[in-house]
């Protein structure tokens, strides 16, 4: 952590070295939050949001507790004013600026009691010249005041303006407050199916007062774009080419004529790799840009986790005057890599390998296709102002420990802070990043488009240098959902709204992305079928494919596969019917919700509410959106609870414990088992096809505790896995070995059948099969029908254990190593299985710091190590199965612990058997 902190301070050094300028940070205490009408005035800080300062001063309770989501609506409807103490140390007669990195969202800014500006975009940086105001301002009056209006009320006002755009019925997805699409604020602040609606207001990012003498500038933002010579976005570049480093500084102030730029590229030990002047320097009244080339041989590549090292460098850039005075210096930590989203048509060579026709839709890192294994990342908190690097670092550790290499940073939250990209750069997590639009269509009047342009320009330039930045996507569920809904509701108007969609996502946003970055691909929508044509001699190089699935090749259309998929149907029956899963090249979202653990529930609801369908629990389940996209009947919204109940009842022994809290806990756990079961079937299915995967519905709870899902996904995200695929209706069982290694792997798969007591059964399948799996490919190692092989047996008393042992090598590594994986298949639902008490025994060794779990009398399904609250940790493995007389040693990584190790004594073990018991 200490190391990280020093790094982040270093990266924040964007201020010029020249001495005369005066930069006053407005961070920290020294602020007052007030609302005179409500007679509230409390000490506050910056950055912050009103709920947080009200909570810190006990004006309100914990916004997350119980039903405060609803009880604190009065905070949402009010105006909140942040007023600074008088700012000292300002010289009245020089050029003076206010700089805000983020105001959430509608703010009226005053300085010295005089109006400065109004703002209307949470995601923009704002800076204002206040020299003339300061020149006549007494020292005691040098206060900044930021009066924030109610975003939901202002959104409604905008919606009611004459001539305002409207959309066909059902297109605009409403959660709790409506009209979010008219304003540039975190869209999930108005409610979402996974979260509360607080619509917070406040200065959520740092701010400064900057004073400059003549011929001085202040760097407010900058971009470094590193790409292979000749590289264009969306096109795989020549990996032998040298690197172009293009650096551009956004400044305000008084830039003298004749500036130049010098650079020093160093490794992390500050040893210079290359240095000199940047060439082709261009200046405008707001930017200075220059570039150089770095020979490919001078630098090592950056790779994501599991694919190679995360090599990083510092790019130090000085802006130098004609008299050799350093006007400004910036340092950006960078990496050398190419990351391309390849949406080209399937080539003849690919067809010859047996890949289905259609288009590609996969990422290539440094010219290599790789398997994207990941999750979706939704905002980690309803209040960004309290998200710390420490918290994100713990979360990202869990991502890497879970064998994941990519996060889709879901649109409709907020743009990720730099520290998040810094951590991802260090840990090797690719961040598929999205502009903040989702599940709605948006206005296209000039003022809205101009506002968006500024927002995109600022954020694209701010984070482009991070090697973890993998992609820009226009928004969430636009082509596959929003345009589809228009077509359903008002097919006559599809052309009109499609043209508007293109105005925003192609004509407005795309040129800003490609005008700034050669290194990052852009797709207008997650999810989409990719581009139909790509031609950089057109003003807008991309034409979207939409549903034009013309094969254009000899294969029949039905075999063609395009683009990404996004799949939810909330029918738990799909667990053993993989023909229900969509076929695509990449799955960006799918799954099912599950309950948090009892430990997490206890932190946020009262003991009296700890039951599955208590009013509080039901009202905290915002899925599906209230009343089917309508705020009026929110109280009836227990559909989400009903879906989870149905899933558990369909497949597992139903908890029926005498103690009501124990029963609640067992239900919560059972919903997590279903979630894990469903995700692993889908991950297995998507990995097996010639498609790519990255699932959603986070498997990690608010405080960092892993759900069953995250352990199960960790297991399924190993490089080489064996997995069964079963159609319960037909009895068709196949078993496949899937590998995402970059070279072929060879090994043996073994099969053994048991009854639930652990006696071996002589079922007639091969006991071992040798296999070879090609690079990023799958091989079938068993295909049979349970109706044949289990004829004359009771299928409810059979389980198949399958294991593999194979030799191969990791990407970017020649050494051979052994890969092992095991999996289980049961032909009936576990609720019908003849489970026996596996006689689990748990012990702990303080010398090895390992737990040991042993099954003594039967097959143990879904073995679960649980630990009490007060600590957050993850076990090396969990949610596994055991044969009788089999033991497993389980280590752990502690993330936080307020029990001084006391949690160890509170660890318990159970399996699915326990769910059948009354105590
Ligand atoms: C509330 O805030 C908005 C945005 O700053 C402002 O336009 C409006 O005048 C404010 N209203 C009051 C009563 O302060
Ligand atoms: C590299 O330089 C920075 C800034 O001067 C300094 O803070 C850091 O400690 C140096 N790192 C090493 C490894 O010397
Ligand atoms: C900077 O130049 C642009 C045109 O290139 C102009 O529109 C803008 O007003 C200028 N800004 C300032 C602060 O001079
Ligand atoms: C400066 O502008 C010229 C002309 O537009 C362009 O060719 C050159 O690439 C620019 N330099 C940089 C570093 O972008
Ligand atoms: C600025 O520095 C360069 C390189 O160090 C040198 O060649 C040049 O003469 C200097 N110019 C002035 C005005 O000092
Ligand atoms: C569909 O795509 C084909 C090329 O694959 C193109 O020739 C045709 O014009 C497209 N149709 C439409 C309606 O855009
Ligand atoms: C919770 O309520 C829903 C909706 O009424 C119902 O379908 C479900 O069976 C209940 N679940 C439990 C575990 O009681």
Automatic annotation (TrEMBL):
<dbReference type="InterPro" id="IPR013783">
    <property type="entry name" value="Ig-like_fold"/>
</dbReference>
<dbReference type="InterPro" id="IPR041447">
    <property type="entry name" value="Mannosidase_ig"/>
</dbReference>
<dbReference type="GO" id="GO:0000272">
    <property type="term" value="P:polysaccharide catabolic process"/>
</dbReference>
<comment type="similarity">
    <text>Belongs to the glycosyl hydrolase 2 family. Beta-mannosidase A subfamily.</text>
</comment>
<dbReference type="GO" id="GO:0004567">
    <property type="term" value="F:beta-mannosidase activity"/>
</dbReference>
<feature type="domain" description="Beta-mannosidase-like galactose-binding">
    <location>
        <begin position="31"/>
        <end position="205"/>
    </location>
</feature>
<dbReference type="Pfam" id="PF17753">
    <property type="entry name" value="Ig_mannosidase"/>
</dbReference>
<feature type="domain" description="Mannosidase Ig/CBM-like">
    <location>
        <begin position="731"/>
        <end position="810"/>
    </location>
</feature>
<dbReference type="GO" id="GO:0006516">
    <property type="term" value="P:glycoprotein catabolic process"/>
</dbReference>
<keyword id="KW-0325">Glycoprotein</keyword>
<comment type="pathway">
    <text>Glycan metabolism; N-glycan degradation.</text>
</comment>
<dbReference type="InterPro" id="IPR008979">
    <property type="entry name" value="Galactose-bd-like_sf"/>
</dbReference>
<dbReference type="InterPro" id="IPR036156">
    <property type="entry name" value="Beta-gal/glucu_dom_sf"/>
</dbReference>
<feature type="domain" description="Glycoside hydrolase family 2 immunoglobulin-like beta-sandwich">
    <location>
        <begin position="243"/>
        <end position="337"/>
    </location>
</feature>
<feature type="signal peptide">
    <location>
        <begin position="1"/>
        <end position="20"/>
    </location>
</feature>
<keyword id="KW-0624">Polysaccharide degradation</keyword>
<keyword id="KW-0378">Hydrolase</keyword>
<protein>
    <recommendedName>
        <fullName>Beta-mannosidase A</fullName>
        <ecNumber>3.2.1.25</ecNumber>
    </recommendedName>
</protein>
<keyword id="KW-0119">Carbohydrate metabolism</keyword>
<dbReference type="InterPro" id="IPR054593">
    <property type="entry name" value="Beta-mannosidase-like_N2"/>
</dbReference>
<dbReference type="InterPro" id="IPR050887">
    <property type="entry name" value="Beta-mannosidase_GH2"/>
</dbReference>
<dbReference type="Pfam" id="PF17786">
    <property type="entry name" value="Mannosidase_ig"/>
</dbReference>
<dbReference type="Pfam" id="PF00703">
    <property type="entry name" value="Glyco_hydro_2"/>
</dbReference>
<feature type="domain" description="Beta-mannosidase Ig-fold">
    <location>
        <begin position="835"/>
        <end position="914"/>
    </location>
</feature>
<keyword id="KW-0326">Glycosidase</keyword>
<keyword id="KW-0964">Secreted</keyword>
<dbReference type="Pfam" id="PF22666">
    <property type="entry name" value="Glyco_hydro_2_N2"/>
</dbReference>
<dbReference type="InterPro" id="IPR041625">
    <property type="entry name" value="Beta-mannosidase_Ig"/>
</dbReference>
<comment type="subunit">
    <text>Homodimer.</text>
</comment>
<dbReference type="GO" id="GO:0005576">
    <property type="term" value="C:extracellular region"/>
</dbReference>
<keyword id="KW-0732">Signal</keyword>
<dbReference type="InterPro" id="IPR017853">
    <property type="entry name" value="GH"/>
</dbReference>
<dbReference type="InterPro" id="IPR006102">
    <property type="entry name" value="Ig-like_GH2"/>
</dbReference>
